[in-house]
Structure formats: structure tokens, C-alpha cells
Fold this sequence. Notes:
Elements: H1 2-22, H2 30-36, E1 43-53, H3 61-80, E2 84-89, E3 97-103, H4 108-115, H5 119-122, E4 126-136, H6 143-149
Antiparallel strand pairs: 1-3, 1-4, 2-3
Amino acid sequence: MKKLFLLISLITVTLATQAQEKKAKAPYDEALAKKLGADNYGMKMYVLVILKSGTNTTETKAKTDSLFAGHMANMGKMVEAQKLVVAGPMGKNDKNYRGIFVLNTKSIEEAKQLLESDPAIKAKLLEPELYNWYGSAALAEYLPFHDKIQKSSF
């Protein structure tokens, strides 16, 4: 019985793989690739920002809340400027990582300039680590769909 199950599983996986290989690849869209800044692989450089807990731990709750409200507003401005394509908080971890950004910038220097306007970073509640990151040029294309699935805002 085990051998029969294994054989059926193997056949199923093989057929599924063959079906996916036969599935037609979407045609190349040169205009879209150019618009998104894609290279020949459909990829481009971004800046990955890992936000860690900062050195400022002395602010009052009211001040911290105000600074984080400014942080969220700044994120909205970066989205509107098409500079922020991914953002989100991280779960509890032992590295004091708080969240990430993927910034649509060509350099770490440009990313640093964008982050200068973030009140939580300015106040040292958050500390950014910046890295060059190579990812799909289509990454930002999901953003218009987010509004369609977001029931509440922060």
C-alpha cells in the first residue's frame, strides 16, 4: 500500500510539473519593463532598510506616540512619491529589529536622504541599517491592490 501511495504521489508531482512547464509564459512587455526600470531579468536595485530599536529610550509615551504618528505619515509621503514599495513591522526577535522598508532608490545615499524626514529616526527611536537589494522591478505593482483589500488604516 505504501509503494502504491508513493507511486501515485510521484506521478501526481510529475504531471503537475509538466503542466506548469507547458503553461505559456506571459509575453514580454517592453514598455512596462522600461517604465519599471527593469533589467533583462525583470529585476532592479532597491535599498532594503532594516529598522532596529534606537538608542532613545527616555521619551514619554505621548511623545513616542507622536513621533510614531509622524513615522507613519512619512511612510505615506514616501508611498505617494513612489519611493516606498514595501514596509511592515517585524515580529518579536532577539536582534531588536522593528520593521523593514524596501525603498525604490538607486543608492544608499538617496535612501538616507529620504529617511532624514522620518521623525522616529530623527529622534533615535528607530535606527536604520541600509543594504543594496536586487529584486523584481514589478514589486511596486502590488500597491494599488492594497487599497482594495485594506478595510482599516493605521
